[in-house]
Amino acid sequence: TNLQDPPYLAGLNPPQREAVLTTDGPVLVLAGAGTGKTAALTARLAHLLWTRKAYPSEILSVTFTNKAAREMRLRVGKLVGDVVEGMPWLGTFHAIGAKMLRRHAELVGLQSNFTILDTDDQLRLIKQLIQAADLDEKRWPARQAAGLIDDWKNRGLVPADIDAGESERYANGRGGELYAAYQTRLRALNACDFGDLLLHMLVILKTHRDVLEHYQQRFRYIMVDEYQDTNSVQYLWLRLLAQQHRNLCCVGDDDQSIYSWRGAQVENILKFEKDFPGATIVRLEQNYRSTPHILAAASGVIANNGGRLGKELWTALSDGEKVKVVGVWDGPEEARRVGDEIETTRRNGKSLDDVAILVRAQHQTREFEDRFIAIGMPYKIVGGFRFYERAEIRDALAYLRVVNQPADDLAFERIVNVPKRGLGDKAVAKVHQLARAEGVPLMTAAARILDTDELTPQARRALGNLVGDIARWRDMARDMPHAELARQLLDESGYTAMYQAEKSADAAGRLENLSELVRAMEEYDTLGAFLEHVSLVMDNEGARDDPKVTIMTIHAAKGLEFDTVFLVGWEEGLFPSQRALDEGGTRSLEEERRLAYVAITRARRQAVIIHAANRRIYGQWTSSIPSRFVGELPDAHIDSETTMSGGASLWQANWSERADPFADVARGTGRGPGWQRAAGATSSFTTKPARIVESRASAVSLGNKGRDDLSVGMRI
Ligand code: ATP
Ligand code: MG
């Protein structure tokens, strides 16, 4: 390396340098996993700042997660030091969308302090609208409507764009009507959902030339990581914003496109070359992350997909261990096995921070959590919504939201009778009626109804107290630090007392969570900023930084790397998911395979793939067969230790020798060794394997119905 090189160029290979130094004009970096795409993008950002080609405020850099944004900020800071005074436009599409929309909210009929609804609020709202429209909620579930509306928003469609064909997708053609009603309701609440953060801004950019020109001028440079997972609305954003300077640099890997179920369009990669003719295309081929065995295993699997853009990958690293493939008896044994292996790793001096367990579906984490709690293995769940999803946290946040924004009806509804203050459904319904009749927020209606004789004296007193309290808290909010306000509010509302009275272990945990919430608030300047943070960042990455094993979904692991990675539950019906199997065709199956590729390529040194012969799914023991992806791993690069392959004869042969995994299996009544589960299991192995297999399909698809992977890595 040249001694005169600025720090950020040190060690970069020639194509990486090209990606960094080609600052002007459109650039597309198309390269496989671990080839240093994100590293190059980070260096590029450093380069633009170091050479003063742009002020920090003139660069728009999009990452896929908040965490990735934090890391990039940190690294650029280290690389170029003082040059950086904060990078206001570095973040996820959602974070950037929220920031822009706050400035221009009035152009779409919102106020700048609008609330960002989470999925739960969104569903409750849609449910109300479904009821108001006299639709059968069972037949036309709110979830389905929410998914459809999301889809439209991802595609950049506003209610007026919904034609009869689209509308037909819900409630016999009433989809468009529901969408319109939903948008109207959101405006009345001064709220928007995640999709709106991008869609409203797109509408503004399209209809307000001055705003568009402002941002087109401002963003001299635009950079996007994980470009293969952008959806249409994001793509339209980029195309509009980059028109002026045309300095757009996108990096991605078609083999890692894993969010099509959320509207991502891998075709955006192909469109790039069309929309920006003459773009520089950079290909990176050296993988710096993984050993040759890991790389070969991943390449072997993805080679089974058709229609790939195709990339060469090589690594200079030495061979290392082969990918380990382990067959176990059931879920608990899987968790035990992983726990044991990690224990060994730890004894060999490795940090737990370098170990990850990747699951296909969120519900799979529980088994590991239970095990790790039992053996005292520190772990963290990343990408789930654990902390902020807890009921007590949601309640506390609802109080804060009402104080922050009195028109926040959903929040008001949530706390109106929590803790119980003698406001029955009837009283609440009356407030609703008045709100609807007068077209005002619930808070206003609540205040007005006090002047009537609609309520019983008891309800009137209770509601009067609540309305008075909220008004008082709003006053206090003006000059009291917001964490202090939260503390007082939780006391005065009786909320803390409710759990103090409960005296259960559970209640103690909840009180701890509430204190943790107040602690978290102290890190933010204003209540509004904190609430915004909560809406955007729903992950609970440890407050304390002692080493922990990471448990996360594959979706959430995109872009990350760990020395040792455990890939669990590689069974047909779990991975590939039953949903993908039910859908048939190659499309969803190929997306599952890309997920497998992403999963394997997260490993630097060691990858362990596990499949279990039996799973308990919704109380039902079912037998499973190893994932087809296990079969696609090239033999030369794996070590198999398949003690359990899922065939009935094999189970029986092994039955008597393997005491441990069968500890809770008692002798049944059938021929030979019985399949009867011991007491405690909700269902039993009383049938022959053939029957078990038969019951499997329905049980498994039930298990997947909850769209487990939805709660992953979104919101970002
Ligand atoms: P993914 O497709 O998974 O997002 P990526 O292409 O973004 O991967 P990076 O995460 O940027 O790859 O890099 C993978 C690893 O290789 C990182 O540990 C990074 O520090 C390292 N790396 C990248 N470029 C180089 C280089 N030129 N020399 C040495 N190490 C490098
Ligand atoms: Mg990356």
Q: Looking at the chains present, what oligomeric state does this protein adopt?
A: single chain
How big is the Rg? 27 Å
User: Which segments are poorly predicted (pLDDT under 50) over 5 or more consecutive residues?
Assistant: 537-543, 645-716
Strand content: 5-15%
Distance between the termini: 37 Å
Number of strands: 16
> What is the average per-residue confidence, as pLDDT, rounded to a whole number?
84
Helix content: 40-55%
Overall 3D shape: globular
Bound molecules: adenosine-5'-triphosphate, magnesium ion
The computed structural class is alpha/beta
Largest sheet: 8 strands, mixed
**Annotation field: number of helices:** 31
EC number: 5.6.2.4
Protein name: DNA 3'-5' helicase
InterPro entries: DExx_box_DNA_helicase_dom_sf, DNA_helicase_UvrD-like_C, DNA_helicase_UvrD/REP, P-loop_NTPase, UvrD-like_ATP-bd
Family: Belongs to the helicase family. UvrD subfamily.
Core attributes:
716 residues; alpha/beta; eight-stranded mixed sheet; six-stranded parallel sheet; 16 strands; globular; disordered C terminus; binds adenosine-5'-triphosphate; binds magnesium ion; helicase; DExx_box_DNA_helicase_dom_sf; DNA binding; nucleotide-binding; hydrolase
